[in-house]
Design brief:
Mean pLDDT: 88
Distance between the termini: 46 Å
CATH architecture of the largest domain: 3-Layer(aba) Sandwich
Number of domains: 2
CATH superfamily of the largest domain: HUPs
Radius of gyration: 20 Å
Order of helices and strands: HEHEHEHHEHEEHEEEEHHH
Oligomer: single chain
CATH class of the largest domain: Alpha Beta
CATH topology of the largest domain: Rossmann fold
Low-confidence stretches: 295-299
Strand content: 5-15%
Strand order of the largest sheet: 3-2-1-4-6-5
Shape: globular
């Protein structure tokens, strides 16, 4: 290996760090398969769930992931993301289960305050219904502790009672990576294999592993309006108000979710390497910079999680 191709000291340290995170994630994914009877991996088609899916592929092999993929669809998701979700699941030969908030609305278990209300918070109802339908005892999710303060309180194996509720003051200790996985009938775990990753780690891993993502994550032209410090995409679900000026801007999404509460950021980053550089300079968390529904207090988000929100 010559000097032109030999990795730098920084690159070697970065790879060692990513290797350690990957190893931990693979260990947790295998642990879930070993101790759970009916687990499922939450898979939205977003970057964090795609990183988890890549680790699952390494842990078990293509076509051998031992649990289904589960998507709770609000009916207001970006089609680029749901199309990619379907493609990736088929590519891996994984079972994909999709349950919709709209079905919960038809059953009357979800009722909106008004037609334009975001359905994002109501996903918890549909999720709990899916848990009851399939009797899942472990749901694996891509939440990270750096995203938001309430999420930082979660254990990796986060216990939920028979009502799907989380009790943060009664969490089980996880010393020396020893997980207490005992459950009573009707209870389940939310498991977070990438808890210790950061947004920067995720993008460095995406760059290193060459993980394909929905196009929304990279720079593209989009009509937006400026609203409360955010760039709100102009869509049928989120139209511009009469006093707002629509602008075509170069943007990308740092996180993707329900169209009614997810905003892009201004960016010319066209590759994962470009986004790594941008992330190094970012001084606002991805959810703080892009989620309209996260302009709430830590206590409010914690209450949502106690009620079953992922």
């Amino acid at each position: 290996m010559n000097a032109m191709t030999e990795p730098s000291h920084f690159e070697r340290l970065s790879n060692q760090h990513l290797d350690a995170l990957e190893e931990e994630t693979i260990f947790i994914l295998r642990e879930v398969a070993a101790v759970s009877e009916r687990p499922a991996l939450l898979f939205s088609g977003g970057k964090d769930s795609l990183v988890m899916l890549k680790c699952a592929e390494k842990a078990f092999g293509v076509g051998r992931i031992p649990y289904p993929l589960l998507m709770i669809d609000t009916g207001h998701n970006f089609h680029e993301v749901t199309d990619f979700r379907d493609f990736r699941a088929q590519e891996l030969g994984a079972d994909l289960i999709v349950r919709s908030v709209e079905d919960s609305m038809a059953r009357g278990t979800v009722r909106l305050a008004h037609p334009g209300e975001s359905r994002n918070v109501h996903q918890s109802v549909t999720l709990l219904e899916a848990i009851d339908e399939f009797r899942f005892d472990a749901l694996i999710g891509g939440a990270r502790r750096d995203e938001e303060k309430a999420r930082a309180k979660e254990r990796i194996f986060s216990h939920r009672d028979s009502f799907g509720q989380w009790q943060p003051k009664a969490q089980r200790p996880e010393l020396w990576t020893l997980f207490n996985t005992r459950l009573q009938p009707g209870e389940h775990f939310r498991v977070f294999p990438i808890s210790n990753w950061t947004e920067l780690d995720v993008w460095q891993y995406i760059e290193r592993e060459k993980i394909a993502l929905p196009s929304l994550y990279y720079t593209h032209k989009r009509d937006v309006v400026e609203r409360k410090g955010l760039l709100v995409p102009v869509t049928e679900l989120t139209p511009a108000k009469a006093d707002e000026t629509v602008q075509s801007r170069d943007v990308r999404f740092r996180t993707v979710g329900d169209i009614t509460c997810t905003c892009p950021v201004e960016s010319l980053a066209a590759t994962a390497a470009d986004i790594v550089i941008e992330t190094l300079a970012a001084d606002v968390s991805e959810r703080g910079a892009t989620r309209m529904d996260d302009k709430t207090s830590e206590a409010s988000m914690e209450k949502r999680k106690k009620d079953g929100y992922f």
